[in-house]
Structures are given as structure tokens and as C-alpha cells.
Amino acid sequence: MNFLVGGKNGMMMDTIILVHVDSEEREIRMVSLPRDLYYNGRKINSYHALYGMPQLLKELEKISGYKIDKYISIDMYAFIDVVDLIGGIDVHLDEALIDPTYKVIDNGVESTLHYEPGDYHLGGKEALRLARSRHTSSDFARASRQHKILSSLKSAASELGFSNSGTLYEIVRAVLSKTETSISIDEAIKYFFMYRDYKMGKTAVLSTGNILYSPPYVKQSDCEVMEILGESNQACVEERFAYTLLPIDDDWDKIKKFFRDNLQ
Fold first, then answer.
1. Does 55 map to a domain?
2. Cα(21)–Cα(250) distance, rounded to whole angstroms?
3. More confident residue, 45 or 253
């Protein structure tokens, strides 16, 4: 089965992860798509806001070459609830995460986001910080941290059993009450017991480090100035006013191959 796991900030889908469940290998694999991927005239994360989840799913199926069976799009408040209900998650950071633009308040003390490399046990609020920070790293680094968080959530949830049925129900209720999803409560509990012992396999992020590139762009205001001065710029002609990402050589089959290589 293939699941779309999305993270919303308002109506914009800022986190897009395709999760592949391999029942033969009993393994779960993930690939993240950057929100700035430019497809058919717009950024991929805008499809949900403009046209709704059905259209976003259709576009993602075309891009990836994979049929998406179920989806769940979670907001930050449900994310905090889930992590706290499980009792927190364990995450290892290989590199420091320091983000002066991300203001935090702990025990009444205001500071900025700062984690040195090492092992951490995080509650929901702290885990969300890792999942959202990007200004001093990148969307690609953030996606890698999100994979770690999802893997840690899976490990923590796997320790729950029938003796924790009350907690399990609370987790499912918290998630589904605050998410847009095609998964019912009964299905969620069924998937939990079906996949709880599956191992986490490969994870990958579509990025400029593998098969994507960012075409030149110019601010619209700068284009207006150049027009007044009689200057020309191809980015202005093509109305490329924002940072976007495309597959190298504009070959979308490269993306399908990337998914096959990392999900099969």
C-alpha cells in the first residue's frame, strides 16, 4: 500500500511524504517531495489549497508513478497531541540545529531554537520544533528530520499493545479529529496492528543534491524596474518570480525512477 502523509500550515501542504508499505519484505519506506516542486504551472504544495486533496493526489500519482491508496494530512496541534500521548519520542541528531529565527519559550524563559548533536527524548512541542525549523538549514534537511521523527513515532507506537487500548484509541481519535484523511478509526487500528512490527527501510528526499535544480528567478518588483529601464531578463519573460524546483533536464521520468529506486 501507498500512503500520503502531509503536514499542513493553514491550507498549504508544506510537508509531502509518500510512504510505501511492502508486505512481502515487511518494510516501510519513505520519499519526501519538496513543497517548491513546480509542476504544471504551480508549486505542488498549492494544489491542496486551490483544488482540494483529490486533485493533489492525482498530481502526485502522475509525478511519482505510484497509486496512492490512503492519505492523512495532519496539522501541528494534532502532531503535538500524538507525541505526548505516546510519551515522547527518541531522536538522534547528527548535526547541530541552531535557528535564531525560531523563538521558543521553555519554563517561562524565552530563547531561540538550539540543539547540539546527540540523543534527545522529546515531547510533542519539542518534536514539532525539529519538524518545522528550516530557516538556517533547508527544506531538504527538514524533510530528513521529519523522516527521523516518523521513524521514532513508529518505534514508540510499536511498543503499544492491547493492554494500551485506551491510549491507542486516544491517539487515533486525536489524529483523526484534527486531520483530513481517508482513513477511518477502524482502518487506523487495523493498520496499526498489521504494520507495527514492520521495520523502517530506506528514506529519501528529492532535492538539489540528487535530481532537482532551481531555475533562475527574479522578484516581480525587479522585473518592473528592468522594464522601465528597457532591460530584459528571461526569468521576467517567463514570469519566474519565485524559488522553484524542477527535475534536471526537465525530465520528469527522472523523478519516477527516483521513486522506484527508493521505494521498491
1. yes
2. 29
3. 253
